[in-house]
User: What shape does this take?
Amino acid sequence: MHELSLTQSLVEIAVDHARREKAQAILSITMEIGSLSGAIPEAVEFAFDVCTRGTLAEGARLEIRRIPGRGRCLECGEETGMDFTTFTCPHCGSFALETFQGKEMRLVELEVD
Amino acid sequence: MCIECGCGITPHDHDHSHSTRTIQLEEDILAKNNRYAAANREHFQQNGAFVLNLVSSPGSGKTTLLERTLRDLTERLQFAVLEGDQQTSNDADRIAATGVPVRQINTGAGCHLDAHMIGHGIETFDLPATDILMIENVGNLVCPAPFDLGEDHKVVVLSVTEGEDKPLKYPQMFQAASLMLVNKIDLLPYLQFDLEQCKGFARQVNPGIEILELSCQTGEGMAAWYDWLQRSVENKRDAAI
Ligand SMILES: Nc1nc2c(ncn2[C@@H]2O[C@H](COP(=O)(O)OP(=O)(O)O)[C@@H](O)[C@H]2O)c(=O)[nH]1
Ligand SMILES: [Mg+2]
Ligand SMILES: [Zn+2]
Assistant: This one.
């Protein structure tokens, strides 16, 4: 359940931005969670209510955009979908896969009042 | 409600706007931890301390590994130890018995150490006199993986009683580690554990991972681990000059 501390960080970052904007409330928070980030969206949703209580983000809506994993083969150059069990290139069988998408855990949008 | 004045009900005349607006951002959730980690790393570098972050599931033998290593290498290398656990100071007490400086960090409900805890944890250590700082993370093959502490390497300990498929089940941790220690090999005769298959799985998720087999109980294989430590400390010292 490291999602609890990740969610705490998410809320802290959001509140910092809202303060800088002199906002009085955060209405919604949009974040991206990559499928290779190790964070489980449902666990973040679960932690969100607890972490926002008593903050500017209390009552805010949380929107999570799930980002699928993508990788590129360093041998043949082909792109492929990646999950935690993708270890070889489906095109040429090489182990040299480089992940370029799916590890993100980012706050991308805030709606404030 | 307005945080500046508590408005919302009563009319008021100071000017701040109440207007809904959208802010576009690109903020990494781990950025704060990563900033602390970078500061720790810089601090370790300046003091020439080599730092390992030991991760495993509970009971793989991290504390036993430390006890034996500290006792065997006390003449050759200066150690300091940070012990992470949710509760109790049992592990720190075991380490203290070896005479090495140790601090316990209790994470309470927390399932991992973070870089901020490490920054405070090392405050009382004499880092310039320390060759190796060992950090025993909370026993858990999932949560500590994404948290950089400022260490040189994550070392994952896997004991042969856990099954050979753990690298496939917890790939993020085995990808994050530079070295895998397969522990409790004294038990191999009593188990159906396929050592070669386990090593194959680990290399499948992380082709660059180094692997050593040992028993903290009998001492078999410990010499190679000690060589690895000695070499790493020297490399770090050379790089610092
Ligand atoms: N047979 C055997 N038992 C070991 C070995 N290393 C550790 N143990 C035992 O495994 C148990 C858990 O060890 P501990 O160091 O507390 O694990 P930790 O939770 O990873 O810190 C203890 O009972 C140890 O004595 C080993 O190499 N062989
Ligand atoms: Mg322990
Ligand atoms: Zn390929």
